[in-house]
Design a protein that fits this description.
- It contains three helices and no strands.
- By secondary structure, the protein is an all-alpha fold.
- The protein has one domain.
- The longest helix has 51 residues.
- The protein is elongated.
- The two termini are 42 Å apart.
- The relative contact order is 0.14.
Length: 98
């Protein structure tokens, strides 16, 4: 994948992770699942297991988007290092005697 594509995907991931409706949906789903988990009877292990699986999937979804976002941050840092290095090389050659 190109650096430009990594940056585009990172921007999209950031928008998703920070979008108010997405944040609200995750909060409500997690709250609902925890209420279900806590309200389950001792004999309802299947309910608790399903809540646990669903919470794990929500976490995996967030982690995937966070991974895409972090990849973009790494690309940004790498690009900035290249720019800084090029600027530094330009200064060195301008100050060296001919």
């Amino acid at each position: 994948m190109s650096e430009e594509e990594d940056l585009r995907r990172a921007t999209e991931a950031k928008h998703i992770l920070e979008h108010p409706l997405v944040l609200e949906a995750f909060e409500l789903m997690e709250e609902h699942l925890l209420v279900q988990f806590r309200a389950s009877k001792p004999s309802q292990a299947d309910v608790r297991e399903e809540c646990h699986r669903t919470l794990a999937l929500l976490d995996m979804f967030k982690q995937q988007l966070t991974c895409v976002l972090n990849t973009g941050r790494i690309v940004e840092g790498t690009q900035q290092m290249r720019v800084d290095k090029e600027k530094g090389n330009g200064r060195e050659s301008a100050h060296q005697p001919h």
